[in-house]
Amino acid sequence: MDSRNYSFPAIAAFFFLFLLSNMPCNAQLSPSFYDGTCPNALSTIRTSIRQSISRERRMAASLIRLHFHDCFVQGCDASILLDDAPSITSEKNALPNAGSVRGYGLIGAAKSEVEKICPGVVSCADIIAVAARDASAYVGGPSWTVKLGRRDSTTASITEANSDLPSFKADLTTLISNFNNKGLSPRDMVALSGAHTLGQAQCFTFRDRIYSNGTNIDAGFASTRRRRCPASVTEGNGNLAALDLVTPNSFDNNYFKNLIQRKGLLESDQILFSSGSTDSIVREYSNNPTRFSNDFAAAMIKMGDIRPLTGQQGVIRRICSALS
């Protein structure tokens, strides 16, 4: 065929498609990512997670926290699940994670079930994100649409885990900076902190607060907490106390009511209501549980967008704890 018969629009379209095919893939996360490749992925994960939480309700808090600790280090890439290996120094050994973060096995169990129906398709990073949503919903918290398509990292960073995860003793300025560095606002920070309506903390994380005799802690609350948390740093470090004394196993807004009453267990909790810039948000959530629920869901979606690996980046691990 004579090349002079080609129209300019046709030639332009050809070169556009050629360029497009050679561009690096910048795939976006999408709720429908597995609709064609593993349509039963979400229901399979949900069943596995519900079974796990039904055996130990505290695991709901652990799974939400696991998602948080994953996303704040290298992004939401399941790097937190990797065990030590010749090329990996596990984030599980970082100070904020060691002996504290739980739920690794639950994610592994859900992954095993998904592998049975769709081998090599669904990432561990997506399973963590879906598990956090399902955990929240199971204990009466909000649900939300999880965007999918994350891939799993081939690296871990214990250094970043030690530096980027917020400390239980952090002041408000530091906390705001920690979250801002991840693209999260002070309102996102307060909403996400509301996850402490669930779960428990170890004595060593709140000992200084309950023995401080400070003005920002209710004396009766401090006395109650001292019963299972000795003053000596050599005793009872792992003893547990509920973060929310009122409804420790239900997702509600009592956490914020506790802060107003100076009954936040951790210093990083109470600092959210200490005559600072976030006081008004705490009051709002204490008075409006629907607003808190909606903002929590929105903040979880936003957190799930932190530095995901997509397209040809990363891998799909068949075993979440290893580069398999």
Summarize the SSE layout with pairings:
Elements lengths: L7 H14 L19 H15 L3 H13 L32 H14 L6 H15 L19 H7 L7 H9 L5 H8 L6 E3 H8 L8 H8 L13 E3 L11 H7 L6 H4 L8 H9 L1 H15 L21
Antiparallel strand pairs: 1-2
Task: Name some characteristics of this structure.
14 helices, two-stranded antiparallel ribbon, 45% helix, 324 residues, disordered N terminus, globular, 2% strand, mainly alpha
Q: Main sheet?
A: 2 strands, antiparallel
Strand order of the largest sheet: 1-2
How many extended strands? 2
Output the structural class.
Answer: mainly alpha
What general form does the structure show? Answer: globular
Query: How large is the share of residues in beta strands?
Result: under 5%
What letter string, H or E per element, gives the SSE order? HHHHHHHHEHHEHHHH
Helical content class: 40-55%
User: How many DSSP H or I helices?
Assistant: 14
**Cα separation of the termini:** 52 Å
- Can you give the mean pLDDT? 92
Low-confidence stretches: 1-26
Please state the CA-atom Rg, rounded to the nearest Å.
22 Å
